[in-house]
Amino acid sequence: MDTYVTITAAAPAARADKAIDLAFDRLEDINRKFNHLDSTSPVFAFNGGKEPLTDSEIVEVVRGAQAVSELSAGTFDITVEPLVRLWGFYGGKMAVPSQAAIDSCLKLVGYRKLSVEGGRVTKLDPRVTIDLGGITKGYALKEAARVLRANGVDSAIIDAGGDVYAIGRKGNENWKVGVRNPRGDGILGVAAVSNLAVVTSGDYERYFWGSPRDTIRPRLGTRSDSSAESVMSPS
To answer: Which helix (H) or strand (E) segment is 141 a member of?
Structure first.
């Protein structure tokens, strides 16, 4: 998932240590299985060939992703992998691509180019590739919480790179999750939650500066010379 994860549990030390270790084991398992950049993962194999995805866990997550795509009219789309790669966010040279390159990539993007039937994910266009990063962290949080509860922890907070899940309460109060100010110091507010997830997304951690094209408008207020450059981000 390419981010930090912290787990804080309110329980006797021995029980908490065991539960946290098992939760991290589960997170590592999910990270290996769903990482499309890991050559040992089923998703990597799916992207590189024509064989369907048959791992039941991955199929169910893809099914959930497809449902969100339908509800959002394609705003969320796991077939966006070629575009994210084009912009250089997979470790390549980050740069604003040409409109021609974007248009070419868009021919490969579209959640309706996937089929989820009979416990299998297949490509309706063999060139399609997927990136489950937009949904797997949430699934991983749910699984980590399940493992903690199954091992006797009913009060904990899991933070996976800003995606936070609160189990139970911290003593007599709900867990408090601060929302960071993306353009300055401190926090914008606090959410007091119990048995809920709090997830935010911003452009202040993974980004780069690039020359604007006619279709990209500079963001006012991001820096003194914002008329010359724009912030680009995958989210």
So the answer is: helix 133-150
How many whole angstroms separate alpha carbon 148 and alpha carbon 146? 5
Question: In which domain, by residue range, is 127 found?
Answer: 41-131
- The CATH number of the domain where 60 resides is what? 1.10.3980.10
Q: Which helix (H) or strand (E) holds 80?
A: none
Q: Among residues 165, 206, 202, 208, which one has the least CA distance to residue 181?
A: 202
Number of domains in the chain: 2
pTM, full prediction: 0.83
Q: CA-CA distance, 20 to 9, in Å (whole number)?
A: 8
For 147-171, write each residue's pLDDT tens digit.
Answer: 999 999 999 999 998 899 999 999 9
Residue 46 buriedness (CB in 10 A; 0-12 / 13-18 / 19+):
buried
C-alpha 1/C-alpha 134 separation (Å) is 10
* CATH number of the domain where residue 25 is located: 3.10.520.10
Residue at token pair 């194999």: 45
Helix, strand, coil shares of the chain, percent, nearest 5, are 35, 20, 45
67 and 137 fall within a common domain:
no
Number of helices and strands (H, E) in the chain?
A: 6, 10
Q: Does the residue 88 lie in any domain? A: yes
Same structural domain, 32 and 137: yes
